[in-house]
Amino acid sequence: MSTLQIPDDPIAAALALMDARRHEDALEVLAVATAKNPTHGTPLLLIAQCQLTLGQKAEALATTERTLSLIPQSAIAMRLHALALHEGSRNAEALQFANLSLETNPAEALTWLTLSWIHAALGNRKTARSSALKALEFDPELAEAHNALGLIELAGHTKWRAVKHFEKALELEPNRAMYRNNLGAAFQSTRRFGKAHDHLLAAAKEDPTSHLPRENLVRTVSSFFLIAIFGINVVRHFPLPVLIAYPFAVLGFGAYRFRRIPRPIFLQGLKQTGKIWLIFPGLIIALLMCIGGVASMSGHSVPAPIGGALTIAGLAWIGIAAWLIRRGMR
After folding, report:
1. Residue 61 and residue 81: Cα distance in Å, rounded?
2. CA gap 291, 304 in Å, rounded
3. Which of 109, 114, 258, 283 is deepest in the core (most CB within 10 A)?
4. How far is Cα 163 from Cα 150, in angstroms, rounded to an integer?
């Protein structure tokens, strides 16, 4: 039996509890308020919000349906109903209610954010991004909008943008373990394992009940050690090609693929001569070296002629690269 004392003003008390992230206690207070006045819509709106936060999808959907029957023109009720439908993967219906809510109150940042989540679930990444940006126009301090943008950018493989949005969300709400977990996952995807480890460990401590930070932390640590062991074996068997070909392949292809990265002089030479394709032999060499590393890790020996051929190919490729660098500097 709960020992929570029901206050005289249950709405204010529930809001205070929700701000303190004590949603279960807030539900208890609101249940008493609803029992006293079953036709009052405000407690039901807060109950639905708590249920959505706690992941009680079916209960939230039933509550929002009941709320809409009492206050059918409420933009907040329509938004929460859209969110409950979205949580239940009924995104086509959710989109209708979110648009209805916007028609009633087009300046509500949370409705634009809800619309962003729905469009993201429907695969409309461009519309999801524009909706989240619209939410920030009406509320620049809305951390959840930055978090949504981070998830959208991460799904679109623009990882550095995702990192910036997650950092901004965490700056606005430093105590949100979810934002810290997402930032750690973004750092993990960019292979910045040290930063990923720190943020994921902090997220796991801030929210011990969530399994996501722990899973991402295990994945980060295992990835780091796998790459370290893998790299040691590759360098041990093919030291010269690694030193020659791999750095240029990574830098060259990275600058070509992600054009926002400052281009090295080498790539400028490739661009001027129209020989961008020369990056790919370096990648093939790196791939062959990786295969050799896998073979060595599995206990198989790599024939000396193959290693020699890779070394010669690496030297030839670096010679061409040096000529292109010289030409690019003119």
Report:
1. 6
2. 14
3. 114
4. 7
Give every residue of the chain whose pLDDT is below 50, as ranges: 1-4, 6, 229, 232, 235, 242-243, 250, 253-266, 269-270, 273, 293-294, 296-299, 325, 328-330
CA 281 to chain centre: 33
Instruction: Name which of 150, 147, 198 is nearest 173 in CA terms.
Output: 147
DSSP state of 158: -
Secondary structure class of 282 (helix, strand, coil): helix
In 103-262, beta strands by DSSP E: none
Contacts of 63 (CB under 8 A, 6+ apart): 44, 47, 48, 51, 84
The model's pLDDT over 57-86, given as tens digits with 9 standing for 90+, comes to 899 899 999 999 889 889 999 999 999 999
Residue 41 · residue 11 · CB < 8 Å: no
Mean pLDDT of the chain: 75
Alpha carbon of 176 to those of 46, 77, 328: distances in Å?
20, 26, 48
pLDDT tens for residues 182-212?
A: 998 898 888 787 788 788 888 888 888 777 8
CA angle, residues 146, 151, 152, in degrees to nearest 5: 95
